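Researcher: Structure prediction, please.
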Amino acid sequence: MRPASSNRTLRASAAVAAVAAVNQLSRALGRGSGTVAGGRAGLAIDPDLLATLAHGHRVALVSGTNGKTTTTRMLAAVLAGPNGTDPVVSNDTGANMPAGHVAALAGGVVGAPVVLEVDEGYLGRVVEATSPEVVLLLNLSRDQLDRISEVRMLVDRWRTALGALPRPAPGRPGTVVVANADDPMVTWAANPAPDVRWVGAGQVWQDDAVGCPACGGRITFEEAGGWECDRCEFARPEVVARLDGDDLVLADGSRHPVEITLPGRFNRANAAMVAVAGAVMIDDERGGVVEALSRVAHVKEVAGRFATVQRSGHDVRLLLAKNPAGWTAIFDLVDEDGPPAPECPPLVLSINARVADGKDTSWLWDVPFERLVGRTVVATGERRLDLAVRLRYAEVAHTVVAAPLDALDHAVRMTEAADQADGHADGVGEAGGAEHPRGADHGSGTGEAGSHGATSGRAVQFLGNYTAFADLRSAL
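Model: Predicted structure follows.
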C-alpha cells in the first residue's frame, strides 16, 4: 500500500486504507481480482481520492472504443524503461473506470509514471481529476448503446472536456493530446485541444463517421486514407506521423519499422500511436519514437488476448472483439491466415450479453459476418441463438454448440479430422451435443474424430466478446 504523505488529508488516508482492505477481502472471498470493489469503497469515503492519488505523478490516459487495454499495456512498456524494470502504475486488469483507477494508484509506487486505460464515458472526469501529461485517443464507434449512448453524444462530451484543457505556459507544459487523424469523430473531439499531435493510424470501421459532426454534410473517404466533408472545410488534419504498411513515417519523411510481436495491422496502429505518445513522455519527440517502438516490441500478449493455448494437443488462439469495429479488425487478422475456405482453421464464435458486454445484441447485425462464408464456424455462448440467426442471414454455414468448452472441443475434433484427411473433413457426422435452432445451418461437414495426441499445425481460433472471452480463459 502507498505510504501516507504529509499533504494527504485524514479522509484520503482512511479511503486508501479502505481500498486495500476491501480489495484484499474481495480476493480472499473469491469475489473478484480486487481491482474495483476497493476503489468504490475509497471513493465513497473520499470523492476526491482520484485527484489526491494522481498528484505528484506524470499521468498518461488512453481512451477509445477499441484497443484501449492493448495500447495501455504498450505505453506502460515504454515507460518501464529500456530493460522493462522501471516502476509504472497502470490498471493492467482493464478496470477502466474511476474505481479501477483509484485501486491502481493506491497500490502503486509513489512518484512513478502512470498509464491509465479510461472508459470512453469517463474520460472528461478522469482528465479533470488527474491533469494528464498525455491523452491518447484511438477511435470512436458504437459500443454498448444501452450504457454509453450514441457516438455523437460521446463525441460532444469529449470535445467539451478536451477544449477545457489549459494552454501551455512557461513552467506549465500543459496536456498533449495524441489523436488518430483517420477517425473524423476523434478529430472533431480533439480539435479544440490546445496541443494535438495527429497520427495517421488508419480506421477499419467508418460506418459511424459518414456524417460530418461540424455541419451535417457527408464525410467522403479516400483510398489513400484522407477524408473530408463535402459541404464544409472539416477534413483530415496534417499528421506528425502515419502508419504506412509496416513502417511509421514521420513528418520529416523518415521511416521506422514497427516490429511488434502482437498480430494484426490494428496492433501496429496502436504501436504507432504509442510511439508518438511515448516520445512525449520520455521527453524526446524524435529519438523517442525509435526508442518507444523498440520497447513496444517486447509486448507479447495482453490479458490473454492473442495468446495461443493448448487444448487436447491442439493450438487455440484467443481473440477478443466486442463491437462491429472490433469484429471487423479481428476478421482482418483471421484473413491473414488465408482466404476463406473449408480447410482454414475453424472459428469458434462466442457471444454473451451481460452488463459488461452490453445487453443489447442488435450490434450483431452491423458485423460483416458475410466475410466468413466458406469458413468452418461454431456458434456458442449465452446468446448463441442470436448469433446463429445472424450467421444464417449472412449465409455462413455453422454448427451451434451450447457450452463454450464443448464448442472448442468440437472445433478441435474437426481440426484433427481435417488434418488426418490432409486438410479435408468431408462426409463426417453431426457434432455431439450440438443445438440446431430453426433456420440455422447444421454445419459444413463436421464431426467426431479419434484421440487428440498430436499437436495440430493449424490453430483453432476462439473469438469472444468480453465475458465470453473471460469465461473461456477461466475455464481453460
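Model: The longest strand covers residues 314-320.
Researcher: Thanks, that helps.
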